């Protein structure tokens, strides 16, 4: 009798064996429902064999195998195996968590409600049918057929408009195999304006399409506004012609709808699914199934979409490859960008990483010849140039509530010309701290090592790490003083200051608080495009990807605090963010400018920003990293541990360090230290860093270490390995 080796969502690093009456190799990758303890759970069959380490009489029988959807392909399973090995996370959990919720439960997959098609298109067979075979007295059928032949897609709405009986007829044709359902596509009524490529864009498209059927990691290094999206569109266009699927990974959910619209408008006849965390279970399942069945041509999604099955996959694009949201920050701490590259290599297809400010890791891989780089060094729109960047030296400026006289003057001039400005301050709330001026007390979170942020509008203090909220204290809890002051500035306070300075201007704040309601972000974006807003004040939500043609001035406030951070990646992150936000100005016909309020105008980072010179800064940061022995010159892993009690955490890490010393050839072991956020949500946190110049050595060290760590249960701490960590 065959024995099935099953992946289950259980936090132990093993597969589970079950007996089945009948099963063969072809069932690998199928879902199976099995008994587990007193429960029934669903897993994925990863292997079928004839014997087991568990005595036969102890093995249980499976309950059933679900066969309504095709099995996960061997390639996808190999990707999941790699992911489990590389990130040292239990295979069963990796496999199960990569799937949509509705595939993980104990029910057969129901297709009811999953088909959100909007219409019908002719199939190959359908196109061969001669309209003359439809009797001419049957005018309705003839009319429907003509529309189908002429317009590619007949939407349900069109059909109903033609006749209430139309849908029944179409369903009949569907059963005959003449039609197939088409999922949502863009509106045909939108006229497609396909720009002529710039010289550099053409070179990039040609280089990649020349090697379309082989593995290569391309870096598309294009300045802001250089038209990277247009390059993606042309590559996808080519992919569609070759009948291959494209997977496009993008960072933030807030950008998904925009890019989706761009894609839908361009590829009106193609099937696009979008997979992001804003979907409900049914929507996610629908998209996933369409990808798995090869029915979706373009799969657009955030991090998790890297695990989407796609039998015809031939191209992967990772937009804003440096974005930290590609790295999952809890549970399985994978990097979707790195897995995308693995997947491309595995399938021997190209992967395109796009960025204006590539991560230093990627840049280093270009310098060492591992990745190939294509440059877009000028803006795509004719006559649009990168905006001049100037620093306002705040040591000698007069300010009104955080706004320098020079910035106020520039905003005023911009408003006079009826153009838009953007004021960037990457801190939401009114003020980052509530202080007592008489004794120095500051409001802190009881559960986290952080200060509470003042939110004046809802008269509350709020912790941005755990979400805790409380009312303002009436008086200082330490000395009784009644005049507490909000100290420092956040978006709300700057919004208030701008309103005082420019009472007639239409000001819109954009941060996580202001876009909390569903669709409010979309509404705001539309208002910006319709020029119903004069001044935008916002956090990094505004920095990325947006194309506001009328935006002429960008003001940057409060960026100094990241200049001298203890995190060695802080500089890289800040530079990326400022390049991105500066890049919002002057993207179309209007010219732009950027003003940075700083007390360190001579800092190399601001100098590089002024010159829009990524390379100079990147090279100097790489030189620093090399000297200091930081990535990309070494590979790191972080053992993160937490518990209610700090001593226990440190004891555990001490024990972990001791074991590590027993077999650490080629691997450097550091001492346990408290995490940057030493307390979070009531848990005390610390970590232990290990690193090596050889990825292979680090990996084999980790494999052995991980097994040993699993035996350290007596400490009762929660721990996880973070391979290639980006936050400390
Ligand atoms: N060949 C072209 N001719 C004219 N306009 C173009 C061309 N290619 C792109 N554009 C336009 O240039 C603008 C900027 O393009 P896009 O948003 O793709 O830039 P990007 O490189 O993605 O920039 P960012 O990194 O800032 O997001 C868009 O309005 C786009 O329509
Ligand atoms: Zn907190």
Automatic annotation (TrEMBL):
Positions that bind Zn(2+) 1: 436, 439, 476, 479
Sections of the chain in a coiled coil: none
One Gene Ontology term, aspect cellular component: primosome complex
Cofactor(s) in the UniProt record: Zn(2+)
Keywords: ATP-binding, DNA replication, DNA-binding, Helicase, Hydrolase, Isomerase, Metal-binding, Nucleotide-binding, Primosome, Zinc
Domain Helicase C-terminal: 471-628
Reaction(s) this enzyme catalyzes, per UniProt: ATP + H2O = ADP + phosphate + H(+); Couples ATP hydrolysis with the unwinding of duplex DNA by translocating in the 3'-5' direction
EC numbers, comma separated: 5.6.2.4
GO MF terms held by the record: 3'-5' DNA helicase activity; ATP binding; ATP hydrolysis activity; DNA binding; zinc ion binding
SMART domains: DEXDc, HELICc
Family stated for the protein in its record: Belongs to the helicase family. PriA subfamily.
Name of the featured protein: Replication restart protein PriA
Originating species: Nitrosomonas marina
Primary gene name: priA
């Amino acid at each position: 009798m065959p024995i099935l080796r099953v992946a289950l969502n259980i936090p132990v690093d093993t597969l589970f064996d079950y007996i089945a009456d009948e099963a063969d190799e072809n069932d690998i990758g199928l879902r199976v429902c099995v008994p587990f303890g007193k429960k029934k759970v669903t897993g994925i069959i990863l292997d079928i064999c004839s014997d087991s380490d568990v005595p036969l009489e102890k093995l249980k029988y499976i309950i059933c195998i679900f066969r309504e959807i095709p099995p996960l392909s061997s390639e996808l399973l190999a990707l999941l195996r790699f992911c489990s090995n590389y990130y040292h996370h239990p295979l069963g959990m990796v496999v199960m968590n990569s799937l949509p919720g509705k595939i993980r439960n104990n029910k057969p997959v129901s297709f009811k409600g999953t088909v959100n098609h909007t219409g019908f298109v002719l199939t190959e067979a359908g196109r061969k049918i001669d309209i003359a075979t439809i009797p001419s007295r049957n005018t309705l059928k003839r009319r429907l057929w003509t529309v189908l032949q002429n317009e590619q897609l007949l939407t349900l709405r069109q059909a109903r408009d033609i006749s209430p009986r139309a849908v029944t007829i179409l369903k009949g044709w569907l059963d005959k195999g003449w039609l197939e359902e088409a999922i949502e596509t863009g509106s045909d009524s939108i006229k497609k304006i396909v720009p002529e490529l710039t010289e550099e864009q053409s070179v990039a498209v040609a280089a990649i399409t020349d090697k379309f059927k082989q593995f290569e990691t391309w870096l598309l290094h294009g300045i802001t506004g250089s038209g990277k999206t247009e390059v993606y569109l042309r590559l996808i266009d080519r992919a569609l012609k070759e009948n291959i699927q494209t997977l496009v990974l993008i960072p933030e959910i807030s950008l998904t709808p925009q890019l989706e619209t761009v894609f839908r408008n361009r590829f009106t006849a193609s099937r696009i699914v979008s997979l992001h965390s804003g979907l409900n279970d049914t929507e996610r399942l629908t998209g996933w199934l369409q990808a798995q069945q090869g029915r979706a041509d373009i799969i657009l999604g955030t991090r998790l979409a890297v695990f989407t099955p796609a039998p015809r996959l031939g191209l992967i694009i990772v937009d804003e490859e440096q974005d930290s949201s590609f790295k999952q920050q809890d549970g399985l701490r994978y990097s979707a960008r790195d897995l995308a590259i693995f997947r491309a290599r595995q399938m021997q297809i190209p992967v395109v990483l796009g960025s204006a400010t590539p991560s230093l890791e990627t840049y280093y891989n270009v310098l060492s010849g591992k990745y190939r780089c294509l440059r877009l060094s000028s803006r795509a729109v004719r006559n649009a140039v990168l905006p001049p960047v100037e620093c306002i030296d705040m040591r000698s400026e007069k300010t009104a509530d955080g706004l320098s006289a020079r910035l106020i003057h520039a905003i005023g001039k911009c408003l006079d010309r009826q153009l838009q400005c953007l004021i960037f301050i990457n801190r939401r709330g009114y003020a980052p701290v509530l202080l007592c001026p008489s004794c120095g007390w500051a409001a802190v979170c009881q559960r986290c090592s952080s200060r509470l942020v003042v939110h004046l509008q809802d008269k509350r203090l709020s912790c941005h790490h755990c979400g805790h909220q409380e009312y303002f204290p009436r008086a200082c809890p330490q000395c009784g003083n009644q005049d507490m002051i909000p100290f420092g500035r956040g978006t709300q306070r700057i919004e208030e200051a701008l309103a005082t300075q420019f009472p007639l201007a239409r000001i819109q704040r954009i941060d996580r608080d202001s876009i909390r309601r569903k669709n409010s972000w979309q509404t705001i974006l539309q208002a910006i495009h319709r020029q119903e807003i004069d001044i935008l004040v916002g956090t990094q939500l505004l920095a990325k990807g947006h194309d506001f043609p009328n935006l002429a001035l960008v003001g940057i406030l409060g960026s100094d605090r990241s200049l001298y951070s203890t995190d060695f990646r802080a500089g890289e992150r800040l530079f990326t963010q400022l390049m991105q936000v500066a890049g919002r100005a002057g993207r179309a016909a209007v010219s732009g400018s950027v003003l940075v309020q700083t007390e360190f105008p001579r800092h190399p980072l601001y100098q590089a920003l002024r010159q829009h010179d990524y390379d100079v800064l990147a090279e100097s940061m790489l030189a620093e990293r090399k000297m200091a022995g930081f990535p990309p010159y070494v590979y790191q892993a972080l053992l993160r541990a937490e518990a209610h009690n700090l001593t226990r955490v440190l004891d555990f890490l001490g024990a972990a360090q001791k074991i590590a010393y027993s077999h650490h050839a080629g691997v450097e072991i550091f001492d346990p230290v408290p995490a940057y956020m030493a307390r979070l949500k009531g848990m005390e946190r610390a970590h232990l860093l290990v690193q090596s110049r050889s990825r292979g050595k680090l990996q084999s060290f980790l494999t052995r270490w991980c097994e040993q760590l699993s035996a350290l249960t007596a400490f009762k701490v929660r721990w996880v390995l973070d391979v290639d960590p980006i936050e400390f």
